Amino acid sequence: MTEKSTSVLSDLPEHFRRIRSFVRREGRLTEGQASAIKNGWPLWGIDYVPECTDWDQVFGRQAPRYLEIGFGMGGATAEIAKNHPQNDYLGIEVHRPGVGNLLKLIEQDSLTNLRLMSHDAVDVVNEMIAPDSLDGVLVFFPDPWHKARHHKRRLIQPEFVRMLVSRLKPGGTIHCATDWENYAEQMLDVLSAEPLLENTAATYAERPAYRPLTKFEARGLKLGHGVWDLVFRRK
After folding, report:
1. Which residues bind substrate per the record (predicted)?
2. DSSP readout, 84-111?
């Protein structure tokens, strides 16, 4: 079942609609990942359609709902969904090996509260998610586009944050995490400038218990590398 969406894409500057925050670095699918996509996508995958989606129907229930943008190989996403069965999670990732890997984990852990998409997050948020419908948005370790000339490709930009906020319920949260200090500073500036958001911390937040500590992150912390979490709430 679908209903007419309230699109805000037409309000975005032309350059933002044209510039993408990702490139498809496909890599090579393993046999297991390819098999998981073949068998698991019809069960847990959601194809993009330019219409607002009835997510209660998709998940078969009414529950708190969270959107994760860029789940990578999906290990943290599967752990979060497994540890919080009372919530529903929609994960977006354009890297097919990651999609295949998370589909394997869904089957392995018998997860019923997780659905996946492999499409541009801007389109999905704009067209498929109704205003005031999400309890939270998770953006963990997005591509930092570390070269200054590529900063325009970073996902966390004022225009996209405004779109995300419009999809949050009052009291809903945006939780970002990065291991690039420069990107953390930009995220803090962008999120702080959004008038409908308030910071839950003075600046950066402590890592919430629900965000798993990955092996890569733990190794970096031991080497003295920083990780910055930001948790903002819609007013």
Report:
1. 147, 179, 214-217
2. -TTSEEEEE---HHHHHHHHHHHHHHT-
36, 31, 30: which is closest to 100 by C-alpha?
36
The residue written with tokens 């067209």 in the block is 127
CATH superfamily, domain 33-234, is Vaccinia Virus protein VP39 (3.40.50.150)
Q: Which residues are catalytic?
A: 143
To the question of whether residue 82 is assigned a binding role by annotation, the answer is no
Terminal CA-CA length for the chain: 30
* pLDDT tops 50 at residue 4: no
Nearest CA to 51 out of 116, 121, 127 is that of 127
Per-residue pLDDT tens digits for 89-118: 999 999 999 999 999 999 999 999 999 999
The residues spanned by each domain of the chain are 33-234
Residue 56 labelled as part of a binding site? no
CA distance 166 to 148: 29
What is the per-residue pLDDT for 18? Answer: 45
Residue 93 counted as an annotated binding residue: yes
Q: Is 3 annotated as a binding residue?
A: no
Q: Give CA angle at 76 (74, 80), nearest 5°.
A: 115
